[in-house]
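We modelled the chain as a single entity of 338 amino acids. Its sequence is:
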Amino acid sequence: MLRHLDGAFSRFFKGAAKYPKRKKKRRSRDSATYVRTGFRWVEDPERPGTGLVTLAKQSEPLDVRWSRPLPSGEVPVKLTVTRDRAGRHFLSVLVEERIDPLPAAFLPGGTEPKAVGLDLGLATLVTLDDGSRLEHPRLLRKYADELARRQRELHRREKGSRNRGKARERIARLYALISDVRRDLLDQFTTRLVRENQVLVVEDLPVADLLRPAVGKGRRRKAKLNQSIIDAAWGELLRQLRYKCEWYGRTLVIVDRFFPSTRRCSACRAKGPKLDVSVREWTCEECGVLHDRDVNPAVNLRNEGMRLFWSVAMALPPGRPMPPVIKASELPEVHLAA
């Protein structure tokens, strides 16, 4: 606990976090951390990477269902046992592991790195520049009726009663199911993208600004929009892309948020008028090409991302690898393409 408190104040004084708050019962996740002297680890010789974990003051080892094995022969440095609001227990194991980067992905018959542009949206969760799409599962909408029924059941229970605690746990389990399905979908999708491409290009989305409170006229519509953005989990998608690119030797290019990816024609680069959200297709007035509302920005993002990629690659000293993340807003003297 003292180690966590020290880390919280260290992040606060560095300006990386807010002032630490006290943990509240039923409002914070229950967790306990054990260093190397607080547990015993015995690796299973028949299943390398798994074994028996016995915590301090315990006579019997934990009954662990391993999601994946640890690196064979490695001894855990630290263990953290957590219990979420759904009543599930998790064991997080910290080990030292070296992840080998993937082989470089090039276009067929050349040395050009294979790149992909991603357009994030609400009608379609992700659209790639080749026209393939990841449909929005809309999990909150799918389970909206059941969530409402569970909430009504909770409010009928007497405060402080055991039945109210059971109703609260049922709601937490349903939310946990939604989170697990969403995270697994994004995990599989981002892993496939990172394995198949060398450069991944996305737009810098100000998710926190987009989720501003719904007040004033049109607040109901804004509240529904906020719920759709939360259900899309753009932040989780970008987080997974960022750390997987660092792991596997890929490059994530984050294009400036003011880049006109939607209004620009990907064929002649002419800038068109502003488009309403309901407009799904539009025709360029300069060259007459018909564009899809989602595919066209993905192509523009890929082209702009490759321009930034090569500008950074040409400025690097010989032999120095490409950085895992290139953010347009942090590059000096890099302007938006006209």
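As a brief sanity check on the tokenised model: DSSP finds eight helices and 13 strands in the chain. The chain has a mean pLDDT of 88.
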